[in-house]
Amino acid sequence: MSDVSFVRTEMLPEKAPPVTSAGAIGWMRENLFSGWFNTALTLVSLVVILYVLSAIVPWVLSPTWSGTSLNECREMLAAAGHNGGHGGACWGVIRERWIQLLFGFYPSELYWRPIAAFILLAVALAPILFSDKVPGKLIWFSAAYPFIFPWLLWGGTVWGPIAAAAGFGIGFVVYRILSDAVSSLAGMIGGLVAALIWWLALSGLAVSALESILPIGIEAVESRKFGGFMLSITIGIVAIACSLPLGVVLALGRQSDLLIVKYLCVGFIEFIRGVPLITLLFVASTLLNIFMPPGTNFDIILRVLIMVTLFASAYMAEVIRGGLAALPKGQYEGADSLGLDYWQSQRLIIMPQALKISIPGIVSTFIGVFKDTTLVSIIGLLDPLGLSNAIRADANWNGIVWELYGFIALLFFVFCFGMSRYSMYLERKLQTGHR
Amino acid sequence: MKKSVFFGALTVAGLAAGAAAAGTMDDVKARGKLNCGVTTGLVGFAAPDANGEWNGFDVAVCRAVAAAVLGDQNAVEFVPTTGKTRFTALASGEIDMLARNTTWTFSRDVDLKFEFVGVNYYDGQGFMVPKSLGVSSAKELDGATVCIQTGTTTELNLADFFRSNNISYEPVPIETNAEAQQQYLAGACDVYTTDASGLAATRATFETPGDHVILPEIISKEPLGPLVRHGDNEWGDIARWSLNALIAAEEYGVTSANIEELAKGTNNPEINRLLGTEGTLGEMLGLDKEWAKRAIAANGNYGEIFAKNIGENTPVGLARGLNAQWTNGGLLYAPPFR
């Protein structure tokens, strides 16, 4: 009896996977139709999506780009066979007003200035956001940018921002001299006082003196001319840029051992967080007006900027405090054991980790602040939402709602989605593998 | 730089307080611009066009005052104000005058310390209903749902009207006129009530305006007019008589078309005094002789302004009604220029 068993001596060539488990069909089988329940869900979802799209797509694709009034749009829609009512969007309003929605009342011959300001903003942000991809020297431009930005937007003499920057220089010089001669605390206080004296008392005189000797400047634009997305972005950027450092200081102050500093910070944070932003805006727009002597011209946008910044920094402080609280105590003790002083340990050990932990919270706060800028329409500033009301007050466009809100929502989405994607990129980049 | 301006302003605040009270007219002349408060946007009354130019019925009053005082109808800084910020803006001196379809009431005049300089539009609260409802009088609205803007006098007027007629209603609170249009068209309420001018403007935007009727009842008095602060009577006089000049010009037949001709002198002494060829009225106001001529030439007389912005040939399509001259059975009655 011969026992012949089959022994394969060479490998079979690899076969392509069956069509039912590879490619598009395989993907669909695995993800959409992997069981009778999921199949049913998929079909129901498809029906819902198609139903929604069948209502929205014809509305969006309406041939009304050249319309000059709502009634003309309706005639065009009727001619194109769209049935009445919500038969189609009236895009003529966007064609006529998109520039206004972007720039507000900014003089049209000066549009290059906000555009330049926002392009330069990208340049200035590059060394901060993508530090590994651009030359490090660019950070000097980032340092100068806070003075270039308001100058480009508001215009006026070039000496103003230079004098403002000089305040920091003076403060730093005094700090170095005093901290070498006396102590670092005295240096800090002295530097702050010197800078404040310069800004409050001397810089105005210096600016007017320099202006009379060498008048260099660009045409000034009043705050009243600001509007539309330019206003939102300006408020958003200033609030975001100022609230992060303020928030760090407040968070550290709240954890400080110095009693007065601690309770000042706690009081500030809790007060601001306990009050709605809209209340602060009303304080900025009406209450300050009543308290200040008549004739005082305290710029409305500056008032709003300060209020929004304070509001954002209180939230930022709590987000960063969350990051600080998440650090193990060993990190603080490790820093101490290396002999680092308070600021060194914060700068080199604590903050880099705490900020990394807080990134999602920080970016959420940024996005929230940016969207909150639309609240300024309630105090009569013409941000995109305020402008949409003003546009509807034009007899040609009265009655248009969805098109304007849709356009505004789209632009806001672009900015907020961009920020959110960047935060995810940053988290991936800083991933140091603690899990 | 803004900061230094601000802090400088604060340090000399005490001095400025004294100086600012000196006179609004001097401030305006020194500034070279009139700061005029308007709405953030109301059809026919004030709205910016695509180039950012403000136009409208209230805006024309601002421009007339600017033309009278500064000689340039474009020397106006329009400050958009909301219903909540308008009075503080005026009281604090942020604006020199407010022309924002504001109803002249006792408490605003007396308690809030403002000076209404006249009435440029006599309005009143009305009702709009779909024709299909088959209602011909507001008294038949028993049990109706009513769309109404919250926090306005219209809310109080409505309650008064229904109570005094002993009928019931169900309010649907809404925030803005745009929202009201959507709610009303969607059938969320049977009736929309607001100022009659607003109803007309709203109805004009509907796809089929003929399907909706504005009921004959007007349930409130809403005299809308420009206002200034209490206590600066010289400035109040200028605003008051600039408005009166526009109204009188219509009465005397002075239009933007014939004003140059009439300004050479006419047989009518009233026109001569108005346009400055006789008498010293301008001097009494602290202005020059041709102040009223410039105010009228800016956008035409009252009738021309009305026809251009809210008249029957515009989308708003308002009839003159109460806003006709007294000679035509209306309420417009400018005191004599003498």
UniProtKB/TrEMBL annotation, chain A:
Superkingdom field: Bacteria
What's its membrane topology? Answer: Multi-pass membrane protein
Domain annotation ABC transmembrane type-1: ranges: 229-423
Predominant place of localization: membrane
Q: Which residues cross the membrane?
A: 36-61, 111-131, 138-154, 160-178, 185-209, 229-252, 264-288, 300-320, 357-382, 402-420
List this protein's GO terms for biological process.
amino acid transport
What keywords appear on the UniProt entry? Cell membrane, Membrane, Transmembrane, Transmembrane helix, Transport
Cellular component (GO) terms are: ATP-binding cassette (ABC) transporter complex
Does the record carry Cell membrane as a key word?
A: yes
Alphabetized PROSITE patterns for the sequence: ABC_TM1 (PS50928)
Give the coiled coil ranges. none
Could you state a single Gene Ontology molecular function term?
A: transmembrane transporter activity
Q: Where in the cell is it found?
A: Cell inner membrane; Cell membrane
Family as reported in the entry's similarity comment:
Belongs to the binding-protein-dependent transport system permease family. HisMQ subfamily.
What this protein is called in its record is: Amino acid ABC transporter permease
**Organism, per UniProt?**
Antarcticimicrobium luteum
From TrEMBL, chain B:
Q: Entry's Pfam families? A: SBP_bac_3
Q: Which SMART domains match?
A: PBPb
**Keywords carried by this UniProt record:** Signal, Transport
What GO biological process terms are annotated to this protein in UniProt? amino acid transport
Q: Which InterPro entries match?
A: Bact_solute-bind_prot3, Solute-binding_3/MltF_N
Report the leader peptide range. 1-21
**Domain Solute-binding protein family 3/N-terminal residue range list:** 33-262
Q: Which SUPFAM superfamilies did the record assign?
A: Periplasmic binding protein-like II
Family assignment from sequence similarity? Belongs to the bacterial solute-binding protein 3 family.
Q: What is this protein called?
A: Amino acid ABC transporter substrate-binding protein
